[in-house]
Write a structure and sequence with these properties.
disordered C terminus, 9 helices, 9 strands, nine-stranded mixed sheet, alpha/beta
Length: 287
Amino acid sequence: MTAAPRRVNRRKAGDAAARRSRGAPWKGTGMAGASTVDAGEVARFDRMARTWWDPDGPMRTLHRFNPVRLTFIRDQMLGHFGRTLDAPRPFEGLSVLDVGCGGGLLCEPLARLGGSVTGIDPAPGNVEVAGRHAARSRLAIDYRQSTVEEMVAAGARFDVVTAMEVVEHVADVGAFVDACCSAVKPGGLLFMATINRTMRSFALAIVGAEYVLGWLPRGTHRWEKFVTPRELEDALAHGGFRIREEAGVVFNPLASEWRMSSDTAVNYMVSATRRSRGPRPRRRAPQ
């Protein structure tokens, strides 16, 4: 059974998240406009670019994970924008920016649902592979070798911005989230997915997934770069956004599939909307 994402009670969630992350350092300087690209991460993913669409290759875990995140995004978009699946292309007329698009695993299904999709990635190999696959699939997706900071500086704004499994790979979480928030049009939606910084995530996402099971290439993740729900919530609040829905994602070994859950100890996703106008909250100082 798939657990429905929960609408977050900000007071209770904040208290619980604070307990989870107590003593953990805040990541990010919040230097607006500065590049958040981690050159080492970009180079590593660029080397794997040609394996993006191999369901049995290094990206196989993401292929199996993709339906869960797509369902979360689709259902949130339907509810927020008042669309239904009765229409053949329910997201017709909505602009979507996928930040860190990789080979286009998320861009393509969103385009099939009618979205006007732009995919950006700093790795040239990823953009090349994504563009070729979209052309073979006869999908009109605008792929660019770019960063979200560059898109914002150029004045680009979108109804929906997604940054899935990207936050834990950037050089400055605060500045990156700020830029993603700035890329969303008024009334739009922002989606993010990342990995919580817990001992369980170290055991499962790094030791288990990379070294024991071999689901991911070794070195894909660094535990110290994982982001707690409280840290992500703080970064979103600094960008003027509040979390709308939050869902954990867990692996069911009996069914050999990923599913949504209330358990956010390892993988989790959020949707966020712009808060009503008010004072811009201060980001917590690094500890």
